[in-house]
């Protein structure tokens, strides 16, 4: 069983950067394309519990039916918000990364570094040009 998992959307730059940083540290995770294979209720609830996160905090607004469904309204219970995420997986913010060191929503993508057992093996620059580590493997996190 793979101890590393990423709930991934390949159309999302943050998700792509997170996956690339995982691979750059020597980890080949199980990649869950959650829009094609959404988590079931138990799995989603488990992820929320592991992250210590309320369902509302995991909701993605941009590019989703968030506004159409009026999900910003405080009337929605946690159970109802989870129902909405199960019905519309695009509402689940990403990427979610699961490792032996913890489970986290990795926004920004650099948050994944704290979940990896090894440092980046090579210099890494995000798609937007942000330098994550330099030639010596040290952390840089600067923009060009």
């Amino acid at each position: 069983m793979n101890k590393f998992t990423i709930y991934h959307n390949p159309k999302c730059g943050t998700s792509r950067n997170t996956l690339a940083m995982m691979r750059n540290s020597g980890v080949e995770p199980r990649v869950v394309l959650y829009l094609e294979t959404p988590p079931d209720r138990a799995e989603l609830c488990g992820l929320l519990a592991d992250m210590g996160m309320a369902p509302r905090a995991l909701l993605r607004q941009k590019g989703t039916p968030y506004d159409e469904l009026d999900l910003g309204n405080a009337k929605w219970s946690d159970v109802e918000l989870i129902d909405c995420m199960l019905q519309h997986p695009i509402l689940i913010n990403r990427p979610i990364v699961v490792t032996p060191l913890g489970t986290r929503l990795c926004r920004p993508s650099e948050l994944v570094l704290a979940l990896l057992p090894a440092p980046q093996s090579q210099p890494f620059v995000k798609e937007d040009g942000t330098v994550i580590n330099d030639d010596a493997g040290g952390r840089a996190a600067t923009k060009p």
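The first helix runs from residue 13 to 24. Residues 71 and 81 are 8 Å apart (CA to CA).
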